[in-house]
Automatic annotation (TrEMBL), chain A:
The lineage of its organism: Bacteria, Pseudomonadati, Acidobacteriota, Holophagae, Acanthopleuribacterales. InterPro entries: 4Fe4S_Fe-S-bd, 4Fe4S_Fe_S_CS, ET_IronSulfur_Cluster-Binding, TAT_signal. This is 4Fe-4S dicluster domain-containing protein. Keywords: 4Fe-4S, Iron, Iron-sulfur, Metal-binding. It comes from the Bacteria. It comes from Acanthopleuribacter pedis.
From TrEMBL, chain B:
It comes from the Bacteria. InterPro entries: Multihaem_cyt_sf (IPR036280). It comes from Acanthopleuribacter pedis. This is Cytochrome c7-like domain-containing protein.
Length: 345, 228
């Protein structure tokens, strides 16, 4: 047995505890799938006891057996195979079209197992001539939080941690600093003598969060949306520290979404399920907006405080706002150039 | 001290120093442009007629009518959600055969509370025509108007809102950001009899501010009581 194959074996064992469990467990079902797996890979019938003998006798057989657990067989071993391939897939930006299709197939299958229904995961790319921009009317927002609720449902946000991408701040009239704002009010709104200002990821044109990522797991797409590859993120939270707007959210625990309320219309870079220890944030509802739909928050707002559109289209609503309203952005002096403006009536 | 390799070593030293200072120079300008890109510049460089995603299927089902601005030669390039097909009690002629005295409290419409700019200015008859039941709305001049084009009526006073609505800074677009532009009518969001948005509870209880952002250092004592 060559050195490289023995290393491979060890890595596989480490990454696939399921395979070791087959050896330990004493259930006939496990026995059969194990034996079948070995048979397929080694082209030879093998039961569990023989297999154990074999593994004791020959390292090469051991390698094959462990590999067997990763072979495409249906049931647990197919899942193991998918997880294995998922673990070693590339950064989304480096994948070919075929590789993207493959990972989508795997994710769809795995998600179907976990969540009791198959999602539809898009990989729709950015369209040429599109640069998304957003405007928020602080005269109109009444603090109802319909946007927050819609976002939670649209983007499969963690209900366990009560995660929310959007935050609505209640600010006393005459004040402008967010330092004196109340981000967790809960009373009848609009409260007298106050106005409301919403924040989320601003999809900066010069995003500092992207610059600091040590592994290239977050980047700005051609249409200006700043995205995260959830399977490439190592959870270092540098980006969260670098964002001057508190735009990013970290999964401290495994996100919980009731299976019946999972939004199954998903995008690879958008609302597909995240896992513990990865970063996420607003994606301008990439799964909707790349299909021409409005983001969920814009659609849900009952007061029309939210304007969304294509900055490169001179006839768009967002361009009308920029041309005809007095607009401002938060912390403009930092040079981050957010594509998210505030305006008043 | 004429070691044969000495000169050579000096030479190498010099080369290295040169390389190092060159590197430092390059390092200062870095791989990024010295001035960050401005969105305004990006827009100026790339704007133009756009073929966005196809959204015909998103707007196909919407009941809409092309917006009209009386007195303008060119037709508007956007659509407005229709109103008439959503109403049960319109036009008035469905029930009222004869003219109604609208300035008396109308019994059948007891649920309508008029809170719109005060009764000295706005009465039922400011917008509704008691005499002619062909249409349900009238302009201030008395001319008839379809409820589908109610924005024209509101715009008589709220001309600034009408202007912003036409441009897209007021109101709400429906279904799609690209393709055919369909917007809500004024009455799609506002109750014309009580146009101000009501006070109500938020639909979501916000998560307390995260410790990573020092945003909630100062709390207002008067707000504190409102929380409980
Ligand atoms: S708002 Fe924050 S997270 Fe969003 S692009 Fe800007 S720096 Fe990055
Ligand atoms: S948390 Fe993830 S996305 Fe953020 S900087 Fe670290 S690896 Fe990159």
């Amino acid at each position: 047995m060559t050195k490289s194959s023995s290393i491979k074996t060890w890595v596989r064992r480490l990454l696939n505890p399921e395979a070791l469990r087959y050896l330990a467990a004493d259930d006939p079902e496990g026995d059969r799938s194990f034996a079948e797996g070995a048979a397929q890979v080694m082209d030879k019938q093998l039961d569990r006891r023989q297999a154990l003998k074999a593994i004791a006798g020959a390292g090469a057989a051991g390698a094959a057996l462990v590999q067997a657990a990763c072979a495409p067989l249906g049931g647990r071993s197919e899942e193991a195979q998918h997880r294995w391939e998922e673990f070693f897939k590339k950064n989304y930006r480096l994948m070919t079209e075929t590789e993207r299709a493959e990972t989508v197939t795997r994710l769809t299958k795995l998600a179907a197992d976990d969540r009791g229904g198959a999602p539809h995961i898009q990989t729709t790319p950015a369209q040429p001539g599109v640069l998304f921009g957003y405007a928020f009317n602080i005269s109109k927002c009444k603090g109802y939080q319909d946007c927050v609720k819609a976002c939670i449902h649209e983007n499969n946000l963690d209900r366990g941690e009560n995660m929310q991408y959007i935050r609505i701040f209640e600010i006393e009239n005459g004040q402008q600093s967010l330092a004196s704002a109340n981000g967790s009010y809960y009373h009848e709104v609009p409260a007298d003598g106050h106005y409301y200002l919403g924040t989320q990821c601003f999809h900066c044109e010069n995003p500092p969060c992207v610059d600091v990522c040590p592994v290239g797991a977050t980047w700005k797409e051609e249409d200006g949306i700043v995205v995260v590859d959830y399977d490439w993120c190592i959870g270092c939270r540098y980006c969260q520290a670098a964002c001057p707007y508190f735009g990013r959210r970290f999964n401290w625990s495994a996100p919980q979404v009731p299976p019946e309320s999972v939004n199954r219309e998903q995008h690879y870079l958008g609302n597909r399920p995240r896992k513990k220890g990865v970063m996420e944030k607003c994606t301008f509802c990439i799964q909707r907006t790349r299909q021409g739909k409005l983001p969920a928050c814009v659609e849900a707002c009952p007061t029309g405080a939210r304007v969304f559109g294509n900055l490169l289209d001179p006839n768009s609503e967002i361009r009308y706002v920029l041309a005809n309203k007095k607009v401002f952005r938060l912390k403009e002096e930092l040079g981050t150039e957010p594509k998210f403006w505030y305006f008043t009536d | 001290m004429a070691f044969p390799g000495n000169r050579d070593r000096h030479g190498r030293h010099l080369t290295r120093m040169c390389l190092l200072s060159l590197l430092m120079l390059v390092g200062c300008s870095g791989p990024k442009p010295p001035h960050p890109a401005r969105v305004a510049d990006t827009i100026a460089a790339h704007e133009g007629p756009v073929q966005g995603p196809d959204t015909a299927h998103l707007t196909a089902e919407l009941n809409r009518v092309r917006a009209e601005f009386p007195g303008r030669l060119q037709a508007a390039d956007f659509f407005v959600e229709t109103r008439v097909n959503q109403l049960k009690q319109a036009p008035c002629a469905q029930c009222h055969a004869a003219p109604v005295d609208l300035d008396k409290a109308p019994k059948a419409h007891w649920d309508i509370q008029l809170e719109h700019a005060g009764n000295h200015m706005m009465q039922c008859s400011t917008c509704h025509d008691p005499g002619d039941h062909k249409s349900s709305l009238i302009f201030l001049s008395g001319a008839a108007l379809s409820m589908d084009h109610v924005y024209q009526q509101c715009g008589q006073c709220h001309f600034e809102q009408l202007r912003d609505w036409e441009g897209g800074a007021h109101g709400q677009r429906v279904a799609a950001w690209s393709g055919e532009r369909v917007v809500r009518n004024c009455t799609g969001c506002h109750d014309p009899h009580q146009p101000a948005f009501p006070k109500r509870w938020p639909v979501h209880a916000a998560r307390p501010a995260d410790e990573t952002l020092p945003i909630q250092e100062i709390s207002h004592p008067e707000e504190g009581s409102a929380h409980d």
